[in-house]
Amino acid sequence: MKRTAAAQWKGSLREGSGVLSSGSGALKGVAYGFKDRFEEGPNTNPEELIAAAHAGCFSMALSGTLVGAGLTAQSIRTEATATFEKVADGWSVTGIHLDAVAHVPGADAATFAAAAEKAKLTCPISRLLSSIPITLSARLES
Q1: Looking at the DSSP assignment, which residues form a beta bridge with residue 95?
Q2: CA distance 2 to 65
Q3: Could you tell me where the DSSP H helices lie in the chain?
Q4: What are the pLDDT digits (tens) for 9-57?
Q5: Cα angle 122-128-132, degrees, rounded to a multiple of 5
């Protein structure tokens, strides 16, 4: 299975602009630019998309891990924060924090914590990002 996405950039780094599209069509001509990435622009940027991918991947992995423990989540909400900063040799994503809140009837805190940790380690995007620190806060909602 392969997934595709494309980026088109026109112009210089600071004054140029680009658009992102995905093979599925979910992203179609989504704008991004210098201000969006290095300042506080209104459009998306690659790091935000990585955070979105990680949040989605983790939520699905946690759901699957809970099913393996005989539990079904009514809801899982994960916010991923990618830290993007200048380091000695340029800009880099230096870490990701996952903050998950789930409503899982019948789950106890220990089972949920173990499932969340397992999901953090096994979700494909976590594996992709294994060269950086990934931290997790996960809590059950009643």
Answers
A1: 83
A2: 24
A3: 34-38, 46-68, 109-122, 124-128
A4: 999 999 999 999 999 999 999 999 999 999 989 999 999 999 999 999 9
A5: 100
The answer on pLDDT for 130 being more than 90 is yes
Full-model pTM: 0.94
- Greater confidence (142 vs 74) lies with 74
Q: Where are the domains of the chain?
A: 5-38, 46-140
- Residue carrying the six token digits 């903050």: 99
Q: Does domain 46-140 have CATH number 3.40.50.2300?
A: no
- Helices and strands per DSSP (H, E), number in the chain: 4, 6
Two tokens at 96? 């990701």
CA 101, CA 76: separation in Å to the nearest integer?
Answer: 6
